[in-house]
Amino acid sequence: AQSVTQLDSQVPVFEEAPVELRCNYSSSVSVYLFWYVQYPNQGLQLLLKYLSGSTLVKGINGFEAEFNKSQTSFHLRKPSVHISDTAEYFCAVSRGSYIPTFGRGTSLIVHP
Amino acid sequence: EAQVTQNPRYLITVTGKKLTVTCSQNMNHEYMSWYRQDPGLGLRQIYYSMNVEVTDKGDVPEGYKVSRKEKRNFPLILESPSPNQTSLYFCASSYTGRGETQYFGPGTRLLVL
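YS: structure for the whole thing
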């Protein structure tokens, strides 16, 4: 079975500060990893994904994430956040099966 | 424009009154799925479909039905809604489902009284 843990339910940060949203997963086999963002009153959209290859993955809006197999982590980072980055962020894992597992979400709140 | 549409976007109903939430995609995707989103629980998959006439249960299928008669449509049916089905529902689609990006609809907020 696979599971995803997002370690922080809420992350407050000031505008232009760096941010890291943490995600750990458990799976006994190779996985695909995703970060999705949900802006207020909208559906989810893909930020970035790791399938194979380079462990540093770059996504949209200046976000990046690093796959760490030994620590089973896939943390999301941005060096300088904007007010418009305020949203809910979801980490998800799939073993290639049809049922991806989502984390409970991290609410990123950017303060001016 | 490539998109997943859901209707209605908002729905208030009463216990036991059958309802259907429609989902349609225009990207010729084979894989479609339904999720519910609840505070503190994230997204949980209800049902998914790998292609026309092929559906299977997700993690929380109780109280829901689905059908896939056409590739583009994947309606979610609540035969006898109950208050614990009050939630935010999302439809999603992808080309094949296996490890691929899912495209989400805008969501349907359901309140069952």
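YS: worth flagging: The CA atoms of residues 67 and 74 of chain A lie 5 Å apart.
IM: good catch. Also The mean pLDDT of chain A is 92.
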